[in-house]
User: Which sequence fits this backbone?
């Protein structure tokens, strides 16, 4: 009898199934019981009937045969809720299964047990919504797990399931991985298909998973990566991600340590922590440290503005009548974008994108790897929507009805003035971002790899005050396998806990 869910990685659980020491059915029962008694709020929907039936018929010869997995709330599985983590669509059901989810279940043999909580439409790097409430960090209740794949991270490190899906449009896999001590890999853009029915814009979103081990993440790539006719940006199939682990020679690779990549302000102690971890890894694997500067523009504000066009397309005629049902930050972001986004701002964003690409290309002409922090600091309050508790623009804007009415009036004036002075909206955004850096701080370390499209992985690097931190390693396009091997070297040098203590 299995009393508690498996506390090691998914690969070892499959080995247990194949040996007969554990059974998928008993594992599913233990998983469902653990979810039911959990205070993490990691799942927004559980399909116990399906999980038990699928586990009873699981083919353990498949890569993830019988392994219970969580599916991110923003993914699609036919017949399951398709809420977007929003009250607006609380009654909507998915009419199709996304390609990656279908492969994980079909080719991989995994047993989906339910949907993990996410931020509303993936719009914030936290897991706080009006639909689901607050998701908590298993390392310390009351602390954030980040987002938007926060429920997946909480479920995996919280000992509920060994693996869960994620998506990363600006850091949404790596950020929660960093806050919870998991492996979070964002592959080269297009590595895992996003279809069907996915918007192309903003051209930064990568599909992946939250994993306890490097080999789990590599096996996920074996199962889910490869082209799909529904996604014209999907890349050709590459075989043997797990089989190739450990095959790259790391000795002699040139590495630049840039703790605050993107000019992000780090919490006290984070830079030294990151440097110590990166230098240990470089020394143990024989990599060569190179001094260099990488000065990329912080793209978060302009990127966010343009990205909201897809939300407007999804909401359609429901907007703006549905504003009161949206998370305050999302509703405010929509109003800001509608009032300020214009052709000039789009031009600025594209100029920044090109500049960022050139900066990163120049860096990778000189070094093989770039190492930075994943997040500005350890996990902050779970209820917070930004890492700072100080008064800021968003806090003021959502503080009361009068403030929101005032904001709408100001934005109406800004829209008129923007028509007369097209460069005014970008100047306003730059001013707000400079005055309230927390608006762009979270995600500022990770978004550059979404813009550039190169692979980046967050690896557990240790703890500050009992909370995990992540070390982010960036590589050249299509060097995903090399990043897996760097992460493997770190895992072997300094093993991390599989679940929260």
Assistant:
């Amino acid at each position: 009898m299995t009393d508690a869910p498996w506390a090691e990685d998914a690969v070892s659980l499959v080995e247990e199934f194949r040996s007969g020491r554990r059974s998928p059915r008993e594992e599913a029962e233990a998983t469902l019981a653990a979810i039911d008694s959990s205070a993490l709020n990691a799942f927004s929907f559980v399909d116990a009937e399906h999980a038990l039936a699928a586990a009873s018929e699981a083919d353990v010869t498949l890569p993830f045969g019988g392994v219970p997995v969580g599916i991110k709330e923003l993914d699609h599985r036919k017949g399951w809720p398709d809420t977007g983590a929003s009250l607006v669509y609380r009654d909507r059901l998915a009419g199709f299964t996304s390609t990656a989810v279908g492969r994980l279940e079909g080719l991989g043999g995994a047993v989906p047990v339910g949907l993990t909580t996410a931020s509303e439409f993936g719009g914030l790097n936290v897991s706080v919504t009006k639909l689901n409430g607050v998701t908590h960090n298993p390392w310390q209740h009351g602390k954030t797990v980040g987002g938007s794949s926060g429920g997946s991270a909480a479920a995996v490190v919280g000992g509920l399931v060994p693996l869960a899906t994620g998506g990363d449009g600006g850091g949404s896999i790596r950020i929660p991985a960093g806050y919870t001590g998991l492996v979070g890999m964002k592959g080269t853009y297009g590595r895992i298909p996003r279809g069907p029915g996915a918007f192309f814009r903003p051209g930064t979103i990568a599909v992946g998973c939250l994993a306890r081990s490097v080999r789990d993440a590599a096996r996920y790539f074996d199962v889910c990566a490869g082209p799909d006719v529904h996604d014209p940006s999907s890349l050709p199939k590459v075989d043997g991600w797990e089989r190739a682990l450990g095959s790259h020679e790391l000795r002699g690779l040139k590495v630049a340590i840039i703790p605050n990549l993107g000019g992000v302000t780090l919490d006290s102690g984070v830079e030294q922590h990151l440097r110590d971890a990166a230098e240990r890894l470089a020394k143990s694997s024989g990599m060569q440290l190179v001094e260099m500067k990488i000065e990329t523009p912080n793209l978060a504000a302009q990127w966010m503005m343009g990205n909201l066009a897809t939300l407007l397309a999804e909401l359609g005629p429901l907007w703006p009548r549905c504003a009161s049902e949206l998370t305050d930050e999302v509703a405010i972001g929509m109003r800001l974008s509608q009032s300020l986004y214009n052709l000039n701002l789009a031009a600025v964003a594209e100029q920044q994108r090109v500049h960022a690409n050139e900066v990163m290309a120049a860096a990778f002409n000189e070094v093989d790897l770039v190492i930075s922090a994943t997040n500005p600091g350890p996990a902050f309050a779970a209820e917070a929507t930004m890492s700072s508790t100080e008064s800021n623009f968003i806090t003021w804007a959502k503080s009361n009805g009068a403030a929101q009415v005032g904001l709408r009036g100001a934005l109406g004036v800004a829209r008129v003035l923007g028509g007369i002075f097209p460069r005014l909206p970008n100047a306003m955004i730059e001013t707000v971002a400079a005055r309230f850096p927390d608006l762009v701080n979270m995600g500022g370390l990770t978004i550059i790899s979404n813009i550039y499209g190169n692979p980046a992985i967050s690896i557990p690097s240790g703890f500050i005050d009992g909370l995990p931190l992540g070390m982010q390693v960036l590589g050249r396009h299509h060097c995903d396998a090399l990043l897996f091997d760097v992460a493997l070297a770190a895992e072997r040098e300094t093993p991390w806990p599989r679940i929260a203590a």
The mean pLDDT is 91. The first strand starts at residue 43 and ends at 46. The chain has 17 helices and 13 strands.
